[in-house]
Design goal:
Layout (H helix, E strand, L loop, with lengths): L6 E4 L3 H11 L4 H15 L7 E4 L3 H16 L2 H16 L2
Helix pairs in contact: 1-2
Amino acid sequence: MPSARTIFILPPSKNELLRRLRGRGQDSEETINQRMAQAVAEIKHYNEYDYIIINDDFNTALGDLQSIIRSERLRLERQIQRHNTLINKLLAD
């Protein structure tokens, strides 16, 4: 999808990511270690995304995500599609 925007959500640190994984209490230490290794492998691709959000504080990260969605909805091409009739009426002689 060429018009899709991509968002990468990063943890604030490796230590915090590890704390969160352990805090879930769902996985073995081996699984947690595998997930950490996978996370590092994924983080190496951060520069392939359009946006990055640091998930340090949930409400801040959520606000950032909502801002991205709002701004993408307001892009010129989307506004033209949504409001073509209105724009044409405003431009009519």
